[in-house]
Amino acid sequence: MSRVVVVTSGKGGVGKTTTSASFSTGLALKGYKVAVIDFDVGLRNLDLIMGCERRVVYDFVNVVQGEASLQQALIKDKRVPNLYILAASQTRDKDALTLEGVEKVIEDLKEAGFDYIVCDSPAGIEKGAQLALYFADEALIVTNPEVSSVRDSDRILGILQAKSKRAENGDAPIVEHLVLTRYNPARVETGEMLSVEDVIDLLSVKLLGAIPESEDVLNASNAGSPVVLDENSAAAQAYNDVVDRFLGEEIEHRFLTVEKKGLFKKLFGK
Amino acid sequence: MNKVIDLKGSILSLTVLKLFSNDIEQTKEALEAKVSQAPDFFVGIPVVLEPEVDNLDPTFLALLVELLHQKQMIPIGIRTQDEAIKEQANYAGLAVFTEEVKSKKRPKEKKEQGGAEEQTGLKTAMVVNHAVRSGQQIYAKDRDLIVMGSVNPGAEIIADGNVHVYGTIRGKVFAGSQGEISARIFAQKIDAELVCIAGLYQLSEDILPEYKTGFVEVALMNEQLNFKLL
């Protein structure tokens, strides 16, 4: 059974695309066949973070509009087997997507035997974001520990519950998971950031994982390699935990408290 | 006392014959074709005519009535707004039903009656089983509202009756929105952007911090919102 997972947030710049890249790569590393679709038509980024920007010939819009076949547009990841990327178009806008066209692409991906279809939503609550979440079975809500991000996530949760296909058909609701990104326990302690508990209390969604704020994320994005592949990074471990918990494993949450630095670390840094 | 007669209104079910052509020959053919399918069915049935075309030939109705009698149907009336057709109907001995407008009104009246019945019956509170999220608005018309989760910032809950929230109110809350001054608000915790009963409101900053700590009741007293920790 294929599952459609939307990665969404409402607010921009919170780490949707980073999460989409690492989450889909993590699932593929577990042996699942994964397709990740960039819904951010006009502002495509996913191909950069996945490091395949020079291999985009046909994109999502071409497929939706029937100008290319799905096989032509799916870009096979070079590092991880079973991982395919469907890039967004940079030259079009979100009006180029239609509900019927998106449905056809998702149905075709299901037929092609993909286990997970990850939809990287654009920011906002308009057409692009609504199309990205419409066919979802599960949702990763990406939130930063600050009030505006939490409020926008709350808004998008409301839309998930009202405007998805599942909601309109009266089926079982979309399974919601919270991914807290850019989490900095030190700044939570000083009161500069909302704590995990605050965010969960506000959103009443189960936490799938907190991703610690880390330089590795930016470096990985610049290098065009999902951070999850950087095994030494705390962010990568956190994303791996997210994937494991998503697949049903019970793992204790990490990276929620300030790491006590030993004398050695204090003297010599990290 | 024995009644000799009694005149009463009654709603009967009648067959309506809709006419889409003002050509009597065409109509005759169509009718004959219809009747020949089940000749017995049409014997003796009362029929109301309803012309969907205007510019009927002055003899059209008379000819049609004659035709229907031949087929052993009993044309009893006509439903129309058209003055010219009404006049023809008069000559053809048909009753005129000016039903068109009324027929549109009827269902509405029925609905209103239905609404009135509901009002007199028990109208229980509207229950929301989840959190009310930013951008969502919930209105419990003519009844109480119970929210099992929290009301998040940017959300609005409105009830014509009382409001009960078994979470924290962080958005806006309106009780007695039609002006019911005895409406009250109960909440596990209030940290609302706005609290309003029957049009009288307080903003978050005007609510004393001590009332934001626990289970609280808000009611109107002397045209002022009165908070009370329970």
Task: Tell me about this structure.
The complex is a heterodimer of chains A (270) and B (230). Chain A has helices at residues 16-29, 46-49, 60-64, 70-73, 99-111, 127-134, 147-163, 165-169, 185-189, 196-203, 215-223, 234-246, 263-268, and strands at residues 3-8, 34-38, 75-76, 83-86, 116-120, 138-143, 175-183, 207-212. With 270 residues, chain A is of the alpha/beta class. The mean pLDDT of chain A is 93. The relative contact order of chain B is 0.07. Chain B has helices at residues 24-37, 60-70, 83-92, 99-120; strands spanning 15-19, 46-51, 74-79, 95-97, 126-128, 137-140, 145-147, 156-159, 163-169, 172-175, 185-190, 194-197, 200-203, 216-221, 224-229. Chain A binds chain B through residues 125, 151-152, 154-155, 157-159, 161-162, 202-204, and chain B through 130-131, 133-136, 149-150, 152-155, 170.
Keywords:
heterodimer, A: 270 residues, alpha/beta, 8-stranded mixed sheet, 13 helices, 8 strands, globular, B: 230 residues, 6-stranded mixed sheet, 4 helices, rod-shaped
What would you say about this model in short?
The complex is a heterodimer of chains A (270) and B (230). Chain A is globular. With 270 residues, chain A is an alpha/beta fold.
Broad shape of chain A? globular
Strand content of chain A: 15-25%
Q: Rg of chain A from C-alpha positions?
A: 18 Å
Computed Rg of chain B? 32 Å
Q: Count of helices of chain A?
A: 13
Q: Approximately how much helix is present in the residues of chain A?
A: 40-55%
Number of helical elements of chain B? 4
Low-confidence stretches of chain A: none
Helix-strand makeup class of chain B: alpha/beta
Topology readout:
The complex is a heterodimer of chains A (270) and B (230).
Chain A: E1 3-8, H1 16-29, E2 34-38, H2 46-49, H3 60-64, H4 70-73, E3 75-76, E4 83-86, H5 99-111, E5 116-120, H6 127-134, E6 138-143, H7 147-163, H8 165-169, E7 175-183, H9 185-189, H10 196-203, E8 207-212, H11 215-223, H12 234-246, H13 263-268
Helix pairs in contact in A: 1-12
Chain B: E1 15-19, H1 24-37, E2 46-51, H2 60-70, E3 74-79, H3 83-92, E4 95-97, H4 99-120, E5 126-128, E6 137-140, E7 145-147, E8 156-159, E9 163-169, E10 172-175, E11 185-190, E12 194-197, E13 200-203, E14 216-221, E15 224-229
Parallel strand pairs in B: 1-2, 2-3, 3-4, 5-7, 6-8, 7-9, 8-10, 9-11, 10-12
Antiparallel strand pairs in B: 11-14, 12-13, 14-15
